[in-house]
Write a structure and sequence with these properties.
With 270 residues, the chain is mainly alpha-helical. The protein has a domain of 132 residues.
Length: 270
Amino acid sequence: MPYDDYGVGYAGLLLAYSFVIFLIAIAGYVLGSLFYMKIFEKAGVQGKWRAWVPVYNVMIFFKLGDLSPWLVLYGIGGAALLSWIGIGFVFSIALAVLSAIAAWRVGLKLQKDAVWVVLYVFLSIVWLGINAFDKSRWNPNIQPASWAGNGFLADRTVWDGVPVQPSAAAPQQGYGAAPQGYGAAPQGYAPPAQQGYTPPAQPGYAPPAQPGYAPPAAPAAPATGAPLPPAQPNTPPAPPAAPPATPPAPPTAPPATPPAPPSDPTQPPA
């Protein structure tokens, strides 16, 4: 029957088309996993097997791009569960947009300009291959993500073997602090301290110091050795002077005789 011939031909064509699509999918999986593995090695991810696990490798790619890895599961689950009511494509579009954002952040850490994300949108496998095998080096010290304070989008997970990205969380800035830009200083750099105005001390009454009890000093410990003899004088003392040979002579003239008292008390003395 002609209709049977058409049916057999259509089935054979569909089978051949499915086989080609399967080969392309296998080749894409192998190349994508290989490129993921090279990028993960640059980022310091331990374990090459992580790049060969479907879905899990995309979650690690999101972590390196400062996005929560659970967004991948949210997007896949939403697209699968809500496709029967016609809105599953919304989750697929959201997942594609988030993948482009993660690629933009990963590209910045591999010294790629933001315009490179256009190549990822149209030919993601080419973008992965260039970043996997070029001579770029991983530098996580870039400008913190603008969504770092968002608990839903920002990466808050810690997995063994996957390095935590310092740019995933924006540091808290105080009043008057300068905003951090692209090319911030790497970790370990200590900026100079901000000089501020120090107001003078307010004059006030200073109470006198409270007198305290000072314990007496402890007596000195006696010497334990034998006492030393007194030092011998070097020069003997001088002998006393000789006494005078002749005593002094007594006075020769006797003292004058006092006048005799008058006989009449009223008369003056003669």
